[in-house]
Fold each of these.
Amino acid sequence: MDKLEIHGGIPLKGEIRIAGAKNSALPIMASTLLTTDTVKVGNLPHLYDITTMLELLGCMGVESIVGEKLGVEINSGTIRHFNAPYELVKTMRASILVLGPMLAHFGEAEVALPGGCAIGSRPVNLHLAALKKMGADITVENGYIKARTKNRLKGAHIFMDLVTVTGTENVMMAACLADGVTIIENAAREPEVVDLACCLRSMGADISGEGTDTITVRGVERLHGSEYSVMPDRIETGTYLIAVAATRGKIKVKDTRPNILEAVLSKLEEAGAHIDIGKDWIALDMKGNRPKAVSLTTAPYPAFPTDMQAQFTALNAVAEGIGMITETVFENRFMHVHEMNRMGADMKVEGNTVVVNGKEILKGAPVMATDLRASASLIIAGLMSENQTTVDRIYHIDRGYECIEEKLQLLGAKIKRLPS
Ligand code: UD1
């Protein structure tokens, strides 16, 4: 397994470009199952998860042509069977996103039931309950979700018990081809849900209310081909901003969208960052100062994102003062804390809160990544530490961050990949 070797203690400085959003690209790629026409998806990030989604579509017979410029043309007209195998679902939980569109368009879908993962149990009961309410016959047998519908799915009034991002996306995609109107209440308001709705609309769907907690979808008989460019990745953007703030540096992040990062930018300002924004860029300057500790609570958008919690925990490790970080979305998302304590951080987990007493500097150590965002936080911790850190199990990071060591090198970091 590859490792990353980091020599920390250097303030990061420079400019980087942000890639397309993974969490937007994945549902958009799954949405191509709603039409037999070709859909061209642009601004895709170079990530393992994107390759896994292409592999998943490909193993069912869907044809795709990968273009030169971060684009792919997908045509589901060639689909031969409707089975998303465990071998792929176990490597990427977002595979569940093929369930709704496949069922709505082809009347059947078999998708391996995703298991728990390092950050929590992560059930998909709400996806299944909503699709059942739309008339699907769903059973779970031998580790597989088996869904069928004889006729078109029916529009329904659906109240989501919890705010679920991929749950909202699955139901919204299925509702596009249902007979009648579907209303999704307590819907996720994440920008990636909005991006998916915009893509679906470009394919002929009739959707309104995305970005609010009530989404209305009027089903149509068919969707058509389209060309759509994925929005920038807000989590990648935030991760680089935090890495730079934590190392007391200065950065300009380009090809991003400041208006979807408000909760993160306001916490960075609280930490002492000077922030300037344009339509598609963000500049951050710590003016050489040590960050101040911040307290925050994660919750669904527009509140502070759980996918940025670990990175802020890393920043608090070297900040001035005590920061309290409360996680309300996932039950087990503090695995990075124990690794950072091995690097000399002073953190205590109390229930769903971690209390961080900032230290002037961390000391490098060998550490192990447990999930995607925890990996990013350990890299940040390594960048802030004196002497050497090696981060093991970095296959997690390659699932969600495009060329991370190259981008950090552009900012002056001493980081290199040690192949296994
Ligand atoms: C998505 C994101 C992930 C992010 C998360 C929360 C993608 C591909 N992934 O994951 O990066 O961390 O949103 O912002 O977009 N839940 C249930 N039953 C369900 C569905 C969810 O109990 O049927 C619970 C989950 O266990 C969790 C909470 O609801 O505690 C929110 O999860 P959810 O929004 O569904 O996360 P994902 O869509 O899997």
Amino acid sequence: MALTNEYLLSVYETVKKRNPGESEFLQAVYEVLDSLQPVAEKRKDLVDAGVFERIVEPERFISFRVSWVDDSGKVRVNRGYRVQFNSAIGPYKGGLRFNASVCASEIKFLGFEQIFKNSLTGLPMGGGKGGSDFDPKGKSDGEVMRFCQSFMTELAKHIGPDTDVPAGDKGVGAREIGYLFGQYKRLANEYTGVLTGKSLYSGGSLARTEATGYGLCYFVKEMLAAKNDSFEGKTVVVSASGNVAIFACEKAQQLGARVVAMSDSNGYVYDPDGIKLDVVKKIKLEERGRIREYAARVPGSVYTEGSSGIWTIPCDIALPCGTQNEIDENSARTLVANGCKCVAEGANMPSTLEAIEVFREAGILFGPAKAANAGGVSVSGLEMTQNSIRLPWTFEEVDAKLQDIMKNIYHNAYAASVEMGRPGDLVVGANVAGFLKVANAMLWQGIAY
Ligand code: NDP
């Protein structure tokens, strides 16, 4: 597909002018506007109310200095961000990412995607995202704590349980959320659900840790079921070995698949007998080690340097769970040539626009991130509900709700794809279904932002 609608092209040109060089953000905006062409043609009321122009501009973008002291006594300075992109359907909601790559473009692309993802969940959550170019890898617990405390000292001025509720993302797991929560509580002198992904001791939800990876597999299950197929006996490749990847692997295995490869940013392991997830969990979750250590511990497995090589392994289903743009056009062509029949995105925007075109042309099943990985934020929404009613639900209760939500997301995205005349194109379906709810809310609320 290509963006040809004159009005939406002019919207895109303005975004380009306002955000020069922000390639990830521009990529995300282009993909959404491209999908929304039939909507712009049919809904003159949204055009007249400037909804398209407004939705691509964040309501608020905050950037701030984060100073902290490392273990040797040296003062370090990082940059923190929070984008409060859209609050039409609920308080801003979206994770915090701590990674050396974090910059304005990355935070804006993630915040923009989050608007539509949160809308698709059916829960009342607006779109936001934040983070820092601080990388917790290789830092001591004390350093991570001091960084988190300094980061929250500024962020606390902008968030609140009914205003903006951050969560984890890459580099922000249970440890970081704990330090951030502790500092917020100290500053605000209140105990509220201002963050999600909290520990079970402090108002966290059961199944939040598993939610994104499990949700991804529930979504794939629906995609396969629509073709009278299932995970049973399928060969699966899962990139990365972080939170999303580990629990995607776990659920795929539970549903009868054989996961043969996982990776990290340095390289990948191939285990033809099926990944031993207990070994991966020990290395990654307990020891914070590297995936190469898997090959040293599991006979018959092989480690190869370079993470993108993972897409050369023949598979039926590919689940990219690492980072943005990890599947480019070449990798997409290799996957298709090797017989891959389904790609579903666990990470945010892991496929380039060119890779998506390859999947479209090949007619394989493709589950875009904002639909397929919405399980994490869905359970974050359920965590907010449990905090509000001050009542925890069991793992089974949360997991059952998660399954329902993922099923609904699939069916709503599919129905929107049919309505737009592109049956089965879930990129279009997810963008349109996610957009319409937010757009109608913006229309109803008048022009205040
Ligand atoms: P983690 O920090 O737990 O793990 C990230 C993983 O990705 C690590 O294994 C990392 O390896 C790996 N990785 C980074 N770059 C690459 C690469 N180029 N190729 C292969 N692997 C790579 O993060 P999460 O699992 O939480 O997040 C992963 C993705 O999922 C992100 O895009 C995130 O935005 C998205 N997501 C996460 C949600 C959640 O609930 N956690 C919710 C929805 C989306 P290394 O250790 O070498 O850095």
Amino acid sequence: MTDTSAIAAELRRLLPRAHAPYSGVCVAAAVEGANGRVHYGVNVENAAYPQGVCAEASAIGAAITQGTSELARIYVASSLPGLVWPCGGCRQKILELALAGCEVITFAADGEVGHQTIEQLLPLGFRLQPRAGQDA
Ligand code: THU
């Protein structure tokens, strides 16, 4: 059973590691594989602004590097007040590896928690490959 509060605490611990000198917005994300492993990432901005990488993309890179390629849950926390949801590009990146019904769980500093599935966040998403366990 996933310890969601432990993941939320780890995301909060990682927020200061974000490299966000331009926006000042620190984001930490975790991706949980179907294998039960959890991989973390933070946003990494760049002086050439479009080259910045979101926390979700960092976490997905860590997951793929460690051999986790089927995602069951995504977790997000940020330094902003309120809930932060993945940007459009990250929704597409998540969809690429998501099991059907993959949950996105986002934590606000005040304790509010938001839940959506990737299908709710990216309806009619573009795919070239069937999902694991599905024909099409
Ligand atoms: N950002 C993320 O890392 N993840 C999100 O879900 C939303 C936005 C980053 C991108 C940029 O470094 C900063 O937050 C402000 O947009």
